[in-house]
Amino acid sequence: MAVLGMVEFSSIAIGIRASDAMVKAAPIDLFESRPISPGKYMSLITGDVAAVEASVQAGVRDAGTQVIVESFVLANLHDQVLSALSEPVVKMTIDAIGVIETSSAASAVKAADAVCKTSPVQLIRLHLANHIGGKGYAVFSGGVADVEASLDAGETAADGHLLEGVTIPNPYDDLYKHLLRDLEW
Questions:
Q1: pTM of the prediction?
Q2: Residue 172 is part of which domain span?
Q3: Which of 103, 104, 128, 130 minimizes the C-alpha distance to 31?
């Protein structure tokens, strides 16, 4: 299990400056740092727990609380979460699909982590903010009971940022290829 820190900023300029402060504050790896819709900025970092905590604190301190949308450190991040952000998922048999939609990118990451830790499901996609109005969503598959249990956990982890959570039992076969397709905007 990895350690992930994330800060979501409401300002691109301040987000860039604060991300620089995060990297300078502790020995971390900058996993992703970029503008996201609508006019926000996010930075995801990995490293050991103390370094990630210090880095996130430095970013929040540099930015000031008025521009922080969300920030967190997940000390035991499920391995599927980083994989879903960086690698394509291979095709598998699907009994059910779960989808969690959140109002922020950070809450989608927290929800996806809870989903993966609850039941033996496969995280298919974790999309953060771009081209969807700053929202985030996670799509996962598995047995119907596992998807429903993971959906409940993910909805709870979304911390008031949950927009919608659905379970789709016995999905249409071709739906899977559309869920895995690279998104072109």
A1: 0.85
A2: 80-180
A3: 128
